[in-house]
From TrEMBL:
Keyword Oxidoreductase: yes
Gene3D superfamilies per record: NAD(P)-binding Rossmann-like Domain
Record's protein name: Cinnamoyl-CoA reductase 2
UniProt xrefs under Pfam families: Epimerase, NmrA
Domain NAD-dependent epimerase/dehydratase: 180-264
One example GO MF annotation: oxidoreductase activity, acting on the CH-OH group of donors, NAD or NADP as acceptor
Organism: Elaeis guineensis var. tenera (Oil palm)
Gene: LOC105032899
Length: 346
């Protein structure tokens, strides 16, 4: 879920130096465009701080040169728009709770890429498995600040969220097999969301919730998380697959949806994120097509009829600008990531 201090930002963030592409400073009297030199790409050829040496140029531009200039101007505008989107955080301070987790690690990565300053909480700052992959992210040296906080300690998060414009709250235990009924995952999520809606209404907090289905895709963290384990269990030699139909969605889409829910001012309410509902039998079929030599489960875990699939509308997620990564790609990315991190070898 995302808390947003849009209405009343508490931080006066100093304007960060935005990245200016060298081509924006293009001056036809001082710089030779790449078309006429036919050599180095223009963007990387000159930096804004080091103007290129003056060259004598004809005073009237031939038609070819004018077309090239128009094309270059269009390219510059495109780049400028892309850069603006990419750096939309522009020094805004936000908080990510449970930052070392599967979804949160991607969230931190994308926030840093967009220029945000990220105050991230983990439970154990001394555990390299929880922090190293975050510290290694691009932009982390300059804009990632790690804090220790635990949901079970009253007031633990106060100093972490202090002064942030938005809070991405992902910290939560996520285990499927528990013995204590009070820890039942599905119930805990339902009760937690209800409590969060009540709290946000009572305290006039602008809140949006992101409700993803089973999240798969590449791992950034070195440890295995519960939802990716669902795919690992299919490729590590098991004989059967569960008689279950699940919604599936890529972790990168989930992380981006969190950010867009914060950035898009019209975002409100709940966003269910599902690229596709598929039975485990269909997931195994996709795996078999992608990895024909792999030993995959041949049969369902029970003889009952397959649990039917259902539909979840994509319309609301589309309004955020989410264009889902297809399930086939998500499965492939998950397997490749599990292989790369040594959870399977084949
Ligand atoms: N993955 C999915 O398929 C999926 C689907 C729907 C919703 N969600 C929700 O999305 C969120 C993130 O899920 P995930 O898959 O990224 O899970 P994850 O990898 O297990 O990450 C959960 C994070 O929560 C932190 N956490 C657990 N107990 C905590 C506590 N008492 N105090 C502070 N932090 C605590 C963990 O911190 P440590 O690193 O210190 O252990 C961990 O970083 C969860 O709320 C989950 O319920 C996940």
């Amino acid at each position: 879920m995302v808390w947003n201090a849009r209405a009343n930002p508490t931080i006066d963030v100093a304007e960060k130096g935005s990245v200016i592409l060298s081509c924006e400073r293009y001056d036809p009297n001082t710089v030779t465009p790449r078309e006429s030199t036919g050599a180095v790409p223009f963007l990387s050829a000159f930096s804004i701080d080091t103007p290129a040496p003056a060259r004598s140029r004809p005073s009237i531009c031939p038609p070819v040169c004018r077309v090239a200039k128009r094309e270059r101007a269009r390219r510059e505008k495109r780049e400028e728009r892309r850069e603006k989107r990419r750096m939309s955080g522009n020094g805004k301070v936000v908080c990510v709770t449970g930052a070392s987790g599967y979804i949160a690690s991607w969230l931190v990565k994308l926030l840093l890429q967009r220029g945000y300053v990220v105050r991230a909480s983990v439970r154990d700052l001394a555990d390299p498995k929880k922090t190293e992959h975050l510290r290694a992210l691009e932009g982390a040296n300059e804009r990632l600040h790690l804090f220790k906080a635990n949901l079970l300690e009253e007031g633990s998060f106060d100093s972490v969220v202090e002064g942030c414009e938005g809070v991405f709250h992902t910290a939560s235990p996520f285990y499927e097999n528990v013995t204590d009924p009070q820890m039942w995952y599905v119930l805990s999520k339902t009760l937690a969301e209800e409590a969060a809606w009540k709290f946000s209404e009572d305290n006039s907090i602008d809140m949006v919730t992101i409700n993803p289905a089973a999240v798969i895709g590449p791992l950034l963290q070195p440890t295995l998380n519960t939802s990716v384990a669902a795919i690992l269990n299919l490729i590590n030699g098991s004989c059967s697959y569960p008689n279950t139909s699940l919604g599936w969605v890529n972790v990168k889409d989930v992380a981006m949806a969190h950010i867009l829910a914060f950035e898009v001012s019209s975002a409100s309410g709940r966003y269910c994120l599902v690229e596709r509902i598929a039975h485990y039998a269909d997931v195994v079929k996709i795996l078999r097509e992608q990895y024909p030599a792999l030993k995959l489960p041949e049969k369902c875990a029970d003889d009952k009829p397959f649990v039917p699939i259902y539909q979840v509308s994509k319309e609301k997620a589309k309004t955020l600008g989410i264009d889902y990564i297809p399930l086939e790609t998500s499965i492939k990315e998950t397997v490749e990531s599990l292989r790369e991190k040594g959870f399977v070898s084949f």
